[in-house]
Amino acid sequence: MNVLVTGAAGHLATLALPGLRGHALRLADVRRPAALPPGASFVPCSLLAAPQAELAQLFRGVEVVVHSAYIPSGERDVYSARPPQLERFDAELDNVRMAQRVYRGALEAGVRRVVVVSSNHAADWYEHAQVHERARETVYETDLPLADNFYGWAKASYELLAHPYACGTFGRRMEFVMLRIGSPYPIDPGRYAPGVAPPATSLPRPRGPAAFKRALGAWLSDRDCASLFRCAVDAPLALPPQAVPWVIAYGISDNTRAFWSLEQARRVIGYEPQDDSEIAYADAVRRLLHEAPAGRLGPQPGLQ
Question: What would the CATH number be for the domain defined by 2-188+221-275?
Answer without folding.
Answer: 3.40.50.720
